[in-house]
Design goal:
Number of helices: 15
Shape: globular
Number of domains: 2
CATH superfamily of the largest domain: MetI-like
Radius of gyration: 24 Å
CATH architecture of the largest domain: Orthogonal Bundle
Distance between the termini: 39 Å
Strand content: under 5%
Length: 276
């Protein structure tokens, strides 16, 4: 039994080390190149460390010429508005589905579940025509509206949390004369904040990394960071050491969020892995 336990631990750590190597190896040359000068990049190996770790010229050039600061601000505005709407609507929809029985409830639940199996690309022709008809294409509002939709993952997370919030709390409030709206906003909604935090992190990272929607609906004057980075990288005149610095800049916010709040991400994924 001790032998089997030791063997299991060895195999587990071997796989963890190999997985870490596969993840970290591509990042090491990226970090090295971001701090190199153009001459160093052309004359040294990608695995050779830079001679000066305080060479921040590439980062400044990328921020200035690639318009990455403006792209960061645009991304922040889109994420703040769309995530606020998405989380609010997700909480409201989940509360209704969990607390009330009504005709067509199973149909609504099934419809939300089926959205998981429909590729985003498959519906974009019709969605784009609708956005164009209301003159929202080439504006941030088109992306905000598409990002603000309620997703089934968020509903799973909220429903799992509401399983731990007894209905007796609602019933006690109703007996005291509270309305359904007051019960939700004053009593239930504050108890849903941990799930809201989890959804905020998971969706925030996903939307920050999204490229397809912003590239399709925004013009060159209004770009998210991923689109601005792609166009900056696509310029044939941009040296790759500067592109590496731009990529590293884009990774920093995600790394900070993940390292700081990783326990909420893991708990949220586990919370979403339940049956509705």
């Amino acid at each position: 039994m001790i032998y089997e336990s030791t063997l299991y631990k060895v195999i587990r750590y071997v796989f963890l080390v190999l997985a870490s190597i596969f993840v970290l190896v591509p990042l090491i040359p990226l970090v090295f190149m971001a701090f190199k000068t153009g001459e160093e990049y052309s004359s040294t190996s990608v695995l050779t460390p830079p001679s000066n770790w305080f060479n921040f010229y590439n980062f400044g050039y990328a921020l200035r010429v690639g318009h990455l600061i403006k792209a960061f601000l645009t991304t922040a505005v889109i994420l703040v508005i769309s995530l606020a709407i998405q989380i609010l609507f997700t909480c409201m929809v989940s509360y209704v589905l969990h607390r009330f029985d009504f005709r067509g409830k199973k149909v609504v639940q099934t419809a939300f579940t089926l959205t998981m199996f429909i590729p985003v690309v498959a519906t974009q022709t019709l969605v784009f025509r609708m956005m164009h008809a209301v003159k929202l294409v080439n504006t941030m509002w088109s992306v905000i509206i598409l990002y603000a939709g309620v997703g089934i993952i968020g509903i799973y997370i909220m429903l799992n949390l509401l399983d731990n919030v007894t209905k007796e709390i609602d019933e006690a409030a109703w007996i005291d004369g509270a309305s359904f709206q007051y019960t939700f906003w004053a009593i239930v909604f504050p108890l849903m904040r941990p799930a809201c935090t989890t959804l905020l992190i998971i969706q925030g990272i996903a939307l920050y990394n999204d490229f397809y929607i912003p590239n399709l609906y925004l013009n060159s004057n209004v770009q998210t960071f991923t689109v601005a980075l792609y166009k900056f990288y696509g310029s044939m005149s941009t040296p790759f050491e500067i592109v590496s610095a731009a990529i590293l800049i884009g990774m920093i916010p995600i790394l900070i969020v993940f390292i700081t709040l990783q326990k909420y991400i893991y708990n949220g994924i586990a919370a979403g892995a339940v049956k509705m």
